[in-house]
């Protein structure tokens, strides 16, 4: 090694050590100026000797390249999820199942950890250096987010050397949770609000959204943090979960300090309760505890069923609740025209954000819970984002509390309301109602749909009011109004050009996202995926009969009716033409299928009947579609295979009469294995 190489390597080692002290231990040893000096020195040398730059250098965390597509990656070892428990009794049941799966005389130890509420990642290290990182995805196939994960300073690009570790660790996976501290999340939201951007609902969404940004330079500026909790190294015989956490710490990863070894389930219950109290004091969000059998040998003996291990379970905490006063009940018009009541509350801080509104769902719910203006109510934030009213504290009802009446006219446009038979909601029938227009546009631009960064609620309101936007296709002609947009006081030239760029990028969104974005009633993101994968193009979906649509596995009559209705509307037809001209994707390309290549399943149509023992129906269907097959609900000449489980009924008989090939569960499993190995 030349003296320059030595100098460079020594600087890198020093910087790595300081990063570790600052970001992992939170115990900085030098001042910011001293640190910057080291970085500068390294940068200067690397500029002089670019041939000596290695990907694990601390200067190489943030790349300049945009990630255009997040490539699918297969997890060599599936990323399992956990079954949930909600009570002491369920924890005792878990303990019983664990003991049943082991020999009578075996001692069982558990490790109880915090369940961090973030986004999980799997990171692969080869010869000590970070190689790839991926999201969980469906547990089998995730998306590659290496460039974004590299920017997170608490994740080492190169592991620390530790002589006390006797394992080889030449090719291992580290799994853990990426998250944001509550305070960091709030600051980020404040900044976004100031610049007119969409705010995030909670730290978890904010983290997941950040990990999927295309520009790693923006990711690097976001306050992402990490805790790791799994070490998987197929070449080594690891001993226990507790040991793994210690090894992770020694390798330089951030491991949460709160974990506890328990030698009985009684102790586990006690620790879960302690953690639930601790939750209030933490700087980050947790939604439960995770209980793991400590011995890896025992974990292997117990194995897993379907998608969850038998050796671990989550204990979910109760949703956080608080009480506040209902100041008014207002009515809001959604994109479908549904008029829903909203409780306007005295603002109150709960679980990471300030709550000032809660949905009341519909008028029947107000009556059932007898919610009145002036009441003090208990509100709760569950797994979902929108808080809800749990109950009224009747003992605190003031004498002046007022009952509310359902509105007679649309609160926004004044047109008359309609209540379809069998539905609890009232609808505004005017599709030109400004709030319906805004709601549709917000849905179209939202993260799960076309994901147009910057086109959030406040900008849409403004653009609709100014007459710039009315239909989806207007979004794609906004660039013609660039000068008018720049004239708007609030918006700078830069934010307009960012907006126009993200509009341009949205044209690359896959067909199923476009289909979902159209906001066809009852077509959620799941149904949109199924329809897109089955019909492959908008033209063939438009041509399909109602019967052909219902044939698609898990697509019911209400969806198929609504799809037909949407596409027969002349106004919608016109918008679709315009969107097509703008260059949106109206045909299906299956990234996953391309990725797994040819398989037994590709292009074949399957019908499932009877019950399977090692898959749920959904899982079997997911496997088939992931490998490029289709699943429909009834047997016809077009069916290639019928997958018949236990107690298969008339569908199997029909398949036999039509001479269709039949697969039993064993054969199916074999085919899945083969496809996975390809
Ligand atoms: S262990 C087979 N430990 O919870 C083991 N998961 O529903 C699976 N999570 O996807 C994961 N904190 O994202 C484990 N201490 C912890 C965790 C944890 C949070 C998340 C993880 C996983 C989900 C399971």
Question: If you had to describe this structure to a student in words, what would you say it looks like?
Answer:
There is one protein chain. The protein is an alpha+beta fold and 678 residues long. The protein folds into six domains: 3-60, Orthogonal Bundle (Helix Hairpins), CATH 1.10.287; 73-316, D-amino Acid Aminotransferase, Chain A, domain 1 (2-Layer Sandwich), CATH 3.30.470; 321-400 and 411-420, Nucleic acid-binding proteins (OB fold (Dihydrolipoamide Acetyltransferase, E2P), Beta Barrel); 434-506, DNA polymerase, domain 1 (Orthogonal Bundle), CATH 1.10.150.20; 511-582, 5' to 3' exonuclease, C-terminal subdomain (DNA polymerase, domain 1, Orthogonal Bundle), CATH 1.10.150; 591-677, 3-Layer(aba) Sandwich (Rossmann fold), CATH 3.40.50. 38% of the residues lie in helices and 20% in strands. The protein is built from 26 helices and 24 strands. α1 (3-24) runs antiparallel to α2 and α17 packs across α18 (525-535). The model has no long low-confidence stretch (mean pLDDT 91). The chain binds 2-(butylsulfanyl)adenosine (IVH). 2-(butylsulfanyl)adenosine is lined by residues 80-82, 113, 115-116, 120, 136, 177, 229, 290, 309, 312, 314. 2-(butylsulfanyl)adenosine binds at residues 80-82, 113, 115-116, 120, 136, 177, 229, 290, 309, 312, 314.
Global geometry: globular
CATH classification, class level of the largest domain? Alpha Beta
CATH fold label of the largest domain: D-amino Acid Aminotransferase, Chain A, domain 1
Specify the structural class.
alpha+beta
Mean pLDDT: 91
Whole-number count of domains: 6
Ligand inventory = 2-(butylsulfanyl)adenosine
Question: How much helical structure, as a percent, in the residues?
Answer: 25-40%
Major beta sheet summary:
7 strands, antiparallel
Strand proportion, as a percent range, falls in: 15-25%
Ranges where pLDDT stays below 50 over 5 or more residues in a row are: none
End-to-end CA span: 42 Å
> Architecture of the largest domain, according to CATH?
2-Layer Sandwich
Secondary structure tally, helices:
26
Radius of gyration: 28 Å
